């Protein structure tokens, strides 16, 4: 994320049940990890770029609907849960 505007914007975020706050000055940049709760305060212009991870496209979009805990479970699953040959 880049502050391409002329005003300072404040970002607030929660990590390990602690609240943090930082100012984003013009021409500053930052990165926010997925699933970090955050918000912005102030009037300005931010350029937001999404950087894709190991899971791409439609699968990533679908996982975004199930929430953080269920996503962790889905990603760490090591056993095949279905019969690839179908019902027999």
Would you write up a description of this structure?
The protein is α+β, with helices and mostly antiparallel strands and 88 residues long. It is 19% helix and 25% strand. It has helices at 57-64, 68-76; strands at residues 2-3, 9-15, 18-24, 38-41, 46-47. The strands form two sheets. The chain has a three-stranded antiparallel beta sheet with strand order 3-2-4, with no helix packed on it. It has a two-stranded antiparallel ribbon with strand order 1-5. Strand 2 and strand 3 form a beta hairpin. It is elongated, with a radius of gyration of 18 Å.
SSE blueprint and pairings:
Blueprint: E1 2-3, E2 9-15, E3 18-24, E4 38-41, E5 46-47, H1 57-64, H2 68-76
Antiparallel strand pairs: 1-5, 2-3, 2-4
Main features:
88 residues, alpha+beta, 3-stranded antiparallel β-sheet, two-stranded antiparallel sheet
Strand content: 25-35%
Helix/strand/pairing class, anyone?
alpha+beta
The average pLDDT value, as a whole number, equals 82
The best one-word shape is elongated
Order of the strands making up the biggest sheet: 3-2-4
Distance between the termini: 51 Å
Oligomeric composition of the shown chains: single chain
Sheet having the most strands: 3 strands, antiparallel
Our count of helices gives 2
Order of helices and strands: EEEEEHH
Tell me the Rg in angstroms: 18 Å
Low-pLDDT sequence parts: none
Helix content: 10-25%
Care to count the β-strands?
A: 5
